[in-house]
Amino acid sequence: MGRGKIMIERIDNSTSRQVTFSKRRKGLIKKAKELAILCDAQVGLLIFSSTGKLYEYASTSMKSIIERYNACKEEQHHQINPEAEVKFWKREAEILRQQLQILQENHRQMMGEQLYGLSVRSLQDLENQLEMSLQGVRMKKEQILKDEIQELNRKGNLIFQENVELYKKVYGTTDSATTSRNAFVPLPFGMHAGGPPQELVQLQLCQPEQEAYETSDTATK
Fold this sequence. Notes:
By secondary structure, the chain is mostly helical. It has helices at 14-39, 62-80, 82-110, 120-171, 176-181, and strands at 44-48, 54-58. Among the domains are: 14-80, SRF-like, CATH 3.40.1810.10; 81-114; 119-168. Helix content is 60%, strand content 5%. The chain has a two-stranded antiparallel sheet. Helix 2 (62-80) packs across helix 3. The longest helix has 52 residues, at 120-171. One of its GO terms (molecular function) is DNA-binding transcription factor activity.
């Protein structure tokens, strides 16, 4: 006697439904493995149970299979509807063209051109932007100058220390004959006879001072 035909419908009994799900899930995964091996196919299988639990099988990598699936779907969409793709790129080109036009207008206004039609508020905002930009440029310039001055001071200190060491090596004797013989020998920069070396002058960045102009009290006749 053969097996009776099973009616394909939802199983009401939860226990029977869970047992059937477990058996058929294992059989489906087994068939997927056989298909991948026998036919050299790339197979990906995703199963979610009624409780939300995930079961999956991939013959290679599930990530690569999904990426390949998305690429194929996108390619098929473009092949089926090429007009939609053309419209999409036209819209993108128009958006980029408008953005470029806005940037060009802003650049010309920053250069002091095409200011006609701007309100007082817009001009004030533009002035504030220019002042902020100018302040940033000045801060950057001052920082560069400070860095250069620090580097010059560092090099000057190194040269000063080298001069001191050389002077000690050459004129380090303290007998009277040597002192008399070296009386007119020029000393290194920052050193004086009979005392310790003076400190090297440090360079500093100073802000320019505004000159004050006074008007004459007497009027010319």
